[in-house]
Amino acid sequence: MASKKFLVGILAMVLVFGMSVIGCGDGNDDGGGYITITGIPAEFNGRWALFDAWSYTHAIGGVARFNMQTEVITLVQISGGSVTLPAWTFDANDNLVRFSGNATVEGILDIFSVQAGTRDTLDDNFISARYWETVVFSGGNTTLTWASGGAAWGGWSAEAFSAELEGRSFDRHGGLRPTIIRGR
Questions:
Q1: How confident is the model over 65-110, as pLDDT tens digits?
Q2: Which one, 39, 71, 142, 148, has the greatest CB density within 10 A?
């Protein structure tokens, strides 16, 4: 049980990273790319998805929208074994904008039992996660299959993932980002 609580704690840190990706702006859709994942097992149909993608030069998040005033994240529903999430990132002025560029990153799909909530609400309603070591965006879009992903944390143990977080810093949005991003 302690190991499960530790893993949920690590997941919370990943969600904090996700908040840093989607933490500014009102999440209005003003064009940009999408993250599509197909072949999701039927047991997750009707559940809700959030996607985080990162590298040392990019942070990209996939959610329906984020309300800065209430800090409520609205997720996208999985249906028919598929989900398509709007892709978001920060511009040079830390404004939340739709992602429309090219990038090679790693990413994780988090699945929840609720459609929307604050970080704490989502943490309490986490169901599962899937990890991709390589996610290629072109023109802001990427398509992944469930089968091409692996166990959350890329097969790392929770302890190894925690050790990987050493040397990272928190940005002014309260989220976890690699120290090298924007010199922070």
A1: 988 789 899 999 999 999 999 999 988 888 889 999 999 999 999 9
A2: 142
What pLDDT does 67 receive?
Answer: 83
To which H or E segment does residue 5 belong?
helix 2-22
d(CA 134, CA 154): 11
Distances (CA, A) of 142 to 29, 64, 99, 180: 17, 16, 11, 24
* Two tokens, residue 75: 């997720």
pLDDT at 180: 26
Q: Under a CB-based contact definition with an 8 Å cutoff, are residues 17 and 52 in contact?
A: yes
Residues of the chain with pLDDT under 50: 1-28, 153-159, 161-162, 165, 167-184
Tokens of 174: 């309260």
As given in the structure block, the two tokens for residue 80 are: 């028919």
Q: Answer yes or no: are the C-beta atoms of 85 and 131 closer than 8 Å.
A: no
Handedness of CA 27, 28, 30, 31 (dihedral sign): positive
Helices 2-22 and 158-165: crossing angle in degrees, nearest 10, is: 40
Count of CA atoms in the C-beta half-sphere (13 A) of 123: 19
Look up tokens 């064009």; give the residue: 31
Nearest to 182 by CA among 54, 103, 92: 92
